[in-house]
Write a structure and sequence with these properties.
Structural class: mainly alpha
CATH architecture: Orthogonal Bundle
CATH topology: Helix Hairpins
Largest sheet: none
Distance between the termini: 56 Å
């Protein structure tokens, strides 16, 4: 079961990174959401199952898992929800102002890049 969840985490990270590198704002927001979900799932998988006791004895080990990864995942879910809501609001505002969802080229960045290339030569 852990191998399947680890594969799912890898797929979510790769698809989220791919979407984050696209030029439309909705794909960027969905990519950030997928990266957040992958990080939460990674925290829960890292928590694992209840293990054996550290010393080999006849007494059974604890029957519960470490609650810290679950608490971290819940906190990360709340923070990711707020961040995604903010990003969706900004994307909607950009769509209303410009009438399109695509991110424009940064002309100032290109100008600085040309100046830097000229200084090297």
């Amino acid at each position: 079961m852990n191998l399947g969840l680890a594969a799912l985490v890898g797929i979510l990270f790769s698809v989220g990174t791919y979407l984050l590198l696209q030029r439309t704002l909705t794909r960027i927001v969905i990519g950030i959401a997928l990266l957040g979900h992958a990080a939460n799932l990674l925290l829960l998988v890292a928590g694992g199952r209840a293990g054996r006791p550290p010393l080999i004895t006849n007494e059974p080990g604890p029957a519960f898992v470490d609650p810290l990864p679950q608490a971290l995942a819940l906190t990360a879910i709340v923070i990711a929800f707020g961040a995604i809501a903010l990003l969706l609001t900004l994307a909607w505002r950009s769509f209303v102002l410009h009438g399109e969802d695509e991110v424009e080229d940064d002309l100032e960045d290109r100008r600085i890049g040309r100046l830097a290339d000229g200084a090297r030569e």
